[in-house]
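User: Design a sequence. Structure:
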């Protein structure tokens, strides 16, 4: 197994669980794999495919995913093809013929095609194994439900001797049980990996105005020159606005949302995958069809509606295991909007609860990763050291008087005002409605003049989260005091608030943590030695990689992953054999690229001396 891993994929060791899963498949047993995004699920069926006789049939829901995997396998010299509606008849004919002749090791196929081929092609070939990727698509409870997936259960009966392996990154209990039942898996062995992604840094910023957000985003991107990233926004409109702002600052940006036609959407996706644009501003529709391994950062411009959504979206960063940064913005207006959506949705109770958990995460003052893992049913017994709370724990102060000022204003207006009006009253502002209603005559009018409106906004959000008041979304967003709030107002309870921070959270020193995150995550044997990596050399090699990518019309990360490129820049191999020893270089890539890379490195070293 290890020899094949090195020969074809160029890796020196397995990641957690991979070896056991592969052994189970080779043993011809049914298998269910629950592993986070980027955990390395593909290898769990690709490696057995190379070791077993016949053709492995892989069912995958999206053409773009198949394309990515096929290109990546072919780039390692493996005979892999995809049968789907994007091929023309001649191509399909050729693929079918090669299959029957036993010339294809790995065949990707869409669920529709599988169903129509059960009694034809599939009966004519020797099937080694059947893999069902993105298996959560079978469940109506989760996201991405695909009706065709539910008919895949006939496969178990039609091919009783063939092992089936189902894989997904969605680990909740309902989905898991659904997959086993619906696919009719036979006494499957279930492998559950940790969902921790220690290479993703977590950061949340609360209550920023557009201008401040933009400033922070630009600074953040500045720390990631030339590195691919995604900015998720709540609305189409926002994606456009953010994109214009970034373009204005000279950055390469594409927009992606459901309002675009297919052609424009494909273009945005392809430009991103092929590094023609650095950034995509997208609604949540973006990402499912993308296996780009070198997305280095994800920003949420708005609060996501659930932790599942959030985790899946940030999970698109750092699939290659290298350190990647995530940043979430969270504002009161997001919350108001999302609460409204939740209230109007079909599954009110669930969606409100999910939003509440998301909000708690954003507001948290304990290690954020502990909250995430806890949410997914894993317990973590230590703080992660790679989230903003760990790096910079919040400080608290006695904010009772401040809270009382706000609550008293709410009480004196008979709970008939919005947050906006409340801040206006506290600040002693003048607007027509305020004067008309006589709020300028209240005792609390202007008592909060000394505090900037922006800070009031932030304190009020804390008060909301501490449960001192609620917002009645069905009553023009009017504020209603809770019984806990009343106790604070009447001095029976103290209120501890977090000190506001206006300064930036300092980015940690890069080099060292990169190596550490790497080690914790997958303990791949050959470590990236960024200490000795030369930036100029890396840049030169990156350009060489782009050249190969353009020539072959495949994405750069498929030519060589970022991680492998860093290793090359660090180890500086000067012979083809040394080049072949690098993690991520199999025999095929050694032959194909070795000479050019080694020549480039030698040239660089000679120039240096
Ligand atoms: P998933 O499908 O679980 O999201 P992938 O199968 O796409 O993840 O793998 C993510 C990345 O990890 C890929 O770039 C893959 O080449 C890499 N990878 C997988 N297994 C190993 C391994 N044993 N050693 C090093 N890298 C690996
Ligand atoms: Mg996958």
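Assistant: Done.
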């Amino acid at each position: 197994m290890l020899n094949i891993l090195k020969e074809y994929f160029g890796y020196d060791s397995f990641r957690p669980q991979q070896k056991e899963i592969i052994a189970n498949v080779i043993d011809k047993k049914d298998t269910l794999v629950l592993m986070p995004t980027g955990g390395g699920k593909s290898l769990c069926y690709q490696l057995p495919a190379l070791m077993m006789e016949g053709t492995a049939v892989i069912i995958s829901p999206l053409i773009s995913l198949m394309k990515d995997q096929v290109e990546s396998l072919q780039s390692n010299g493996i005979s892999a093809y995809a049968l789907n509606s994007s091929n023309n008849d001649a191509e399909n004919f050729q693929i079918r013929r090669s299959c029957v002749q036993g010339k294809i090791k790995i065949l990707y196929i869409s669920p529709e095609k599988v169903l129509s081929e059960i009694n034809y092609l599939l009966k004519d070939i020797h099937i080694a194994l059947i893999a069902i990727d993105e298996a959560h698509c079978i469940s109506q409870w989760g996201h991405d439900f695909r009706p065709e997936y539910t008919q895949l259960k006939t496969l178990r009966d039609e091919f009783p001797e063939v092992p089936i392996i189902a894989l997904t990154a969605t680990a909740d209990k309902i989905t898991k049980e659904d997959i086993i039942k619906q696919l009719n898996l036979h006494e499957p062995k279930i492998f559950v990996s940790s969902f921790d992604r220690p290479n993703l840094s977590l950061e949340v910023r609360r209550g920023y105005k557009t201008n401040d957000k933009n400033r922070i985003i630009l600074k953040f991107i500045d720390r990631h020159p030339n590195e691919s990233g995604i900015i998720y926004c709540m609305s189409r409109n926002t994606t456009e606005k953010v994109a214009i702002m970034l373009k204005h600052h000279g950055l390469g940006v594409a927009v992606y949302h459901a309002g675009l036609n297919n052609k424009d959407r494909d273009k945005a996706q392809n430009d991103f995958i092929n590094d023609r644009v650095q950034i995509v501003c997208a609604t949540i529709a973006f990402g499912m069809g993308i296996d780009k391994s070198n997305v280095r950062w994800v920003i949420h411009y708005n609060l996501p509606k659930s932790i599942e959504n959030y985790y899946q979206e940030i999970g698109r960063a750092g699939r290659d295991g290298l350190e990647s940064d995530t940043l979430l913005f969270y504002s009161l207006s997001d919350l108001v909007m999302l609460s409204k959506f939740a209230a109007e949705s079909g599954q009110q109770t669930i969606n409100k609860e999910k939003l509440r958990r998301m909000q708690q995460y954003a507001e948290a003052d304990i290690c954020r990763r502990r909250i995430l893992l806890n949410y997914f049913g894993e317990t973590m017994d230590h703080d992660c050291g790679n989230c903003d709370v760990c790096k910079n724990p919040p400080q608290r102060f006695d904010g009772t008087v401040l809270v009382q000022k706000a609550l008293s204003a709410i009480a004196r207006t008979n709970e008939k005002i919005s947050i906006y009006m409340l801040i206006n009253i506290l600040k002693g502002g003048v607007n027509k409605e305020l004067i008309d209603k006589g709020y300028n005559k209240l005792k609390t009018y202007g008592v909060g003049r000394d505090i900037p409106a922006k800070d009031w906004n932030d304190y009020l959000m804390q008060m909301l989260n501490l449960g001192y008041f609620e917002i009645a979304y069905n009553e023009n967003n009017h504020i209603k005091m809770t019984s806990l709030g009343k106790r604070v107002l009447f001095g029976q309870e103290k209120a501890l608030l977090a000190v506001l921070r206006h300064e930036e959270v300092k980015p940690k020193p890069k080099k060292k943590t990169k190596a550490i995150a790497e080690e914790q995550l997958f303990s791949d044997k050959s470590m990236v030695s960024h200490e000795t990596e030369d930036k100029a050399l890396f840049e030169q090699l990156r350009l060489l990689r782009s050249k190969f990518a353009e020539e072959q019309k495949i994405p750069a990360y498929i030519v060589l992953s970022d991680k492998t490129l860093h290793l090359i820049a660090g180890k500086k191999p000067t012979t083809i054999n040394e080049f072949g020893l690098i993690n991520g270089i199999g025999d095929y890539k050694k032959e194909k690229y070795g000479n050019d890379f080694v020549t480039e490195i030698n040239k660089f070293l000679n120039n240096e001396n």
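Residues 11, 14-15, 18, 35, 37-43, 291, 293, 319-320, 524, 561 surround adenosine-5'-diphosphate (ligand 1) (CB under 6 Å). Residues 17 and 339 are 40 Å apart (CA to CA).
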